[in-house]
Amino acid sequence: MTLIRLLFFVLCLSSVGNLEARAHALDPGFLDLRQTGEETWQVFWRKPDVQGAPMDIDARLPETCTPRTGSEPITDGRAWISSWTAICIDGLADKSIVVDGLERQATDVLVRVQPSNRSPTTVRLTADSPSFVLASEPSSLGVFGTYGTLGFEHILEGWDHLLFVLALVLLVPDTWRLVGTITAFTIAHSITLALASLGHISVPGPPVEAIIALSVVFLAVELLKRKEGQPRLSERAPWIIAFAFGLLHGLGFAGALQDIGLPDSDIVVALLAFNLGVEAGQLAFVTVLIATGFVVRWLVVPRVPSRLAFQRRGAAVSAYAIGSVATYWLAERLAGF
């Protein structure tokens, strides 16, 4: 696990300059089209902020809509927004919706279309696929693919969630105990993700995000206070810590899913797909960490003069790096209240 610590240190150094991203990658754009009349659609368009200016992308409706684009956006302090009412003859079914300029960007755009006579459709547009044609009726398979991809990318873009998982990997060196710990974390966040997404529980987002950052700080402190022959609770029963904080991380996942919205006709399919996507991303992250650790152990460790000193330095550097980044997030989120 010492080598995984070394890998993390390099990863942390590469991400420190991006702390202002609030522990997530660049916010995606968001286009919401809500039908309010037979040919009337209310359009909401949010562009990401790039150094104080709107990103150079524009949402463009089909040619049968007037107007196809909105007015100049205004900032809300985090992104650039505009809204307008469009008259779309013959509706939007089987019509193309495109985001001009997205092919030159490194972010993506979520598009949600809400016709008055059917459940909403959510689509993710990327640089490789900056447009889509709205199907007359979305299939369950399409819903599964879309929400599975969203879940996978959400966990891999959520640095706070990933740092928590990484801290668990560093804290639990035994493979089977690690499997049990990650499983407990998975079960916990799956429970609260489902309950919150279905409306059975509701917790304000800012406190949840702050406590998620605090959970990472807690694990960093546990890493620093480890002593040989004196295991702490997080080492004796790491699944308890993972399960408790996993409940809170699930609320964070639910907040992202609620922003996207669930299709009325395929709620269960979308929720299952999003959760499976999150688990797939989490598993991919842990697999890469462990595999890289084995490779570095084989190539680097034999050349290290003092393995014990190397392990101790690696443990301290990792703990301080995790704690510093998480403390920054915690302070930022508390200030945001």
Task: Please outline what is shown here.
Helix content is 53%, strand content 17%.
Judged by helices, strands and strand pairing, the structural class is alpha+beta
Helical residue percent band: 40-55%
What's the shape? elongated
- The termini sit apart by 37 Å
Got a strand count? 11
Taken in chain order, the helices and strands follow as HEEEEEEEEEEEHHHHHHHH
Q: Which key phrases capture this entry?
A:
8-stranded mixed sheet, alpha+beta, 9 helices, 53% helix, single chain, 2 domains, 337 residues
Can you put this structure into words, describing what you see?
The protein is an alpha+beta fold and 337 residues long. It folds into 2 domains: 2-24 and 158-335, no CATH class; 29-138, no CATH class. The chain has 9 helices and 11 strands. Strands 1, 2, 3, 5, 6, 7, 9 and 10 form an 8-stranded mixed beta sheet that branches.
Write the layout of secondary structure elements.
Blueprint: H1 2-15, E1 29-35, E2 40-50, E3 53-54, E4 58-60, E5 65-66, E6 74-75, E7 79-88, E8 96-100, E9 109-114, E10 121-125, E11 131-133, H2 140-157, H3 159-171, H4 175-197, H5 205-224, H6 233-236, H7 238-260, H8 267-299, H9 307-335
Parallel strand pairs: 1-9
Antiparallel strand pairs: 1-2, 2-3, 2-7, 4-8, 5-7, 6-7, 8-11, 9-10
Helix pairs in contact: 1-8, 1-9, 2-8, 3-5, 3-8, 3-9, 4-7, 5-7, 5-9
